[in-house]
Amino acid sequence: MTTAPQSPVREPAWPLSRSAIGLWVTEGVIASLGLGVGAALFAVFVPADAPAPFPVLRWLAPALVLVYAVVAIGIRPWVRFRVHRWEITGEAVHTLTGWLTRTWTLVPVSRIQTVDVTRGVLQQLFGLSTVSVLTASSQGTVQVWHLDADVAQRVADDLAHRAEQVRDQAT
Questions:
Q1: pLDDT score recorded for residue 156
Q2: Residue 143's closest CA among 131, 151, 153, 154?
Q3: Sheet harboring 128-135: ordered strands across?
Q4: What's the pLDDT at 166?
Q5: What is the pLDDT of residue 19?
Q6: Within 10 Å of residue 119's Cβ, how many Cβ atoms?
Q7: pLDDT tens digit string along 98-112?
Q8: 166 to 21, 147, 171: CA distances (angstroms)
Q9: What angle is formed at CA 116 by the lines to CA 113 and CA 122, rounded to 5 degrees?
Q10: Cys-Cys with 107: which of 14, 93, 146, 155 at CB 3.0–4.6 Å?
Q11: What is the DSSP letter of 46?
Q12: Which of the 8 DSSP states describes residue 106?
């Protein structure tokens, strides 16, 4: 009995840094506060005797912001952490992203043109970085989000070195 060759389409092995949960919670708090201020201003400045549908919206808007806050702070960060995965193999970069719409990406090392490491303001507070892998593909850049800063730098250096070796072997 022969076994079928292993498909390259599989779930990547590594989760993002656990610090990503804190980052996503912080982003949820910031967004919820902004929406909450907007909903509060709407509720305060819309008169109670305004024409329909404004009286209903005076109280519906804060309620919807509260529901959003519960999802953005209490649910979404943990779900995203469970579903976002990444892996670097000898042949490719694998990513799996999305918590509602799932996107699986495989980038062969031979197609890599540039590898960048970026750190946003909030990422810096949590010690995280994003590794961006640029190819000549029409899909553009593949990103491995929210890795620990030292891991991201090692991954970027390793990928750049491997891509250079592949280019040198091709010439």
A1: 95
A2: 131
A3: 112-118, 128-135, 141-148
A4: 81
A5: 97
A6: 15
A7: 878 988 888 899 889
A8: 36, 25, 9
A9: 155
A10: 93
A11: S
A12: E
* pLDDT per position as a tens digit, 139-167: 778 899 999 999 999 999 999 998 888 87
Number of H helices, E strands in the chain: 5, 7
Give the dihedral sign, CA 160/145/123/155.
Answer: negative
Please report the pLDDT score of residue 43 as a whole number: 86
Per the CB < 8 A criterion, the answer to whether 116 and 163 are in contact is no
Q: Which residues of 133-160 are buried (b: 16+ CB within 10 A; e: fewer)?
A: bbbeeeeeebbbbbbbbebbeebbeebe
Q: Which parts of the chain register pLDDT below 50? A: 4
Give me the long-range contacts of 151-156 (CB less than 8 A, separation at least 24).
Answer: 151/17, 152/117, 152/128, 153/117, 153/129, 155/88, 155/131, 156/115, 156/116, 156/117, 156/131
pLDDT on residue 115: 94
pLDDT at 8: 56
For the chain, list the strands marked E by DSSP.
Answer: 14-15, 85-88, 92-97, 103-108, 112-118, 128-135, 141-148
In the numeric block, which tokens belong to residue 134? 């640029």
CA 161 to chain centre: 25
Question: How many residues are listed for the chain in this entry?
Answer: 171
